[in-house]
């Protein structure tokens, strides 16, 4: 069961780092979760840092054991986790919640949270995946370099209990993980695309320093983004294109 047990940490450099250390001891059961009141060096995608005032937001890592998934289909884990986060956040923020490829959590055109998955391999065996998620819950002021953040409090006008919402997120993850089976891959991927930010809509992107207008047309089973540019379909991997938010 995801979130059982759930450990509450007062302060840690990164919940993903801490979870990885615990998994490497060989004494962690799948589904174990670690929530931090404070991170001193929170990790985002592609080496970015995730900063958060102490006690205001959700900072969580979970040890998952996706043994049923071959490494060639590991993007399906990202799909299921993204859908879980969408299920959970939309309960409170409403139907303007979206998934930004590959696995950020958006509300309208603003970023509410991010997901980072780090894998533990033993040879060719996918032993564990450490799923880290950070979501802005009660924060209302953000560093100036963040161009489009938003928190659940800003959306709803309410204060939220981070630990209570962590438990409801774990319940959403548990429900979705039951569907992580080859028979459901196509259905899950289609649902993921239906909730995707800018899917089949024109938007501004940056690639190799160039700004251009593009339209997301598809996401492939391996996670590549199919982006239409000037009538041509580009198949792009993670980190190859930047979404530009035009204010």
Automatic annotation (TrEMBL):
The name on file for this protein is Biotin--[acetyl-CoA-carboxylase] ligase
Q: Which GO terms describe its molecular function?
A: biotin--[biotin carboxyl-carrier protein] ligase activity
Question: What Enzyme Commission number does this protein have?
Answer: 6.3.4.15
Q: Write down the PROSITE patterns for this protein, in alphabetical order.
A: BPL_LPL_CATALYTIC
State the source organism's domain of life: Bacteria
Database matches in Pfam families: BPL_LplA_LipB
Q: Which InterPro entries match?
A: aa-tRNA-synth_II/BPL/LPL, Biotin_CoA_COase_ligase, BPL_LPL_catalytic
Q: Keywords in UniProt for this one?
A: Ligase
Q: Which residues form the BPL/LPL catalytic domain?
A: 1-181
Q: Which GO terms describe its cellular component?
A: cytoplasm
């Amino acid at each position: 069961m995801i979130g059982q047990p759930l450990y509450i940490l007062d302060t840690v450099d990164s919940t993903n780092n801490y979870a990885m250390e615990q998994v490497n001891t060989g004494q962690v059961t799948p589904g174990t979760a670690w929530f931090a009141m404070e991170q001193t060096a929170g990790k985002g995608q592609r080496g970015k840092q995730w900063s958060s005032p102490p006690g205001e937001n959700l900072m969580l890592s979970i040890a998952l054991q996706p043994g049923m998934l071959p490494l060639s289909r590991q993007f399906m884990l990202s799909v299921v986790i993204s859908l879980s986060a969408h299920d959970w956040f939309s309960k409170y923020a409403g139907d303007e919640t979206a998934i930004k490829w590959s696995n950020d959590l958006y509300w309208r055109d603003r970023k509410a949270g991010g997901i980072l998955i780090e894998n533990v391999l033993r040879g060719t065996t996918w032993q564990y995946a450490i799923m880290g998620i950070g979501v802005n819950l009660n924060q209302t002021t953000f560093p100036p370099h963040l161009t489009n953040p938003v928190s659940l409090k800003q959306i709803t006008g309410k204060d939220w209990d981070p630990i209570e919402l962590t438990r409801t997120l774990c319940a959403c993850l548990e429900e979705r993980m039951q569907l992580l089976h080859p028979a459901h891959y196509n259905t899950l991927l289609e649902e993921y695309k239906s909730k995707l930010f800018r899917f089949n809509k024109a938007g501004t992107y940056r690639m190799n320093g160039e700004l251009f207008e593009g339209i997301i047309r598809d996401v492939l089973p391996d996670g590549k983004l199919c982006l239409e540019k000037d009538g041509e379909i580009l198949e792009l991997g993670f980190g190859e294109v930047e979404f530009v938010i035009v204010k």
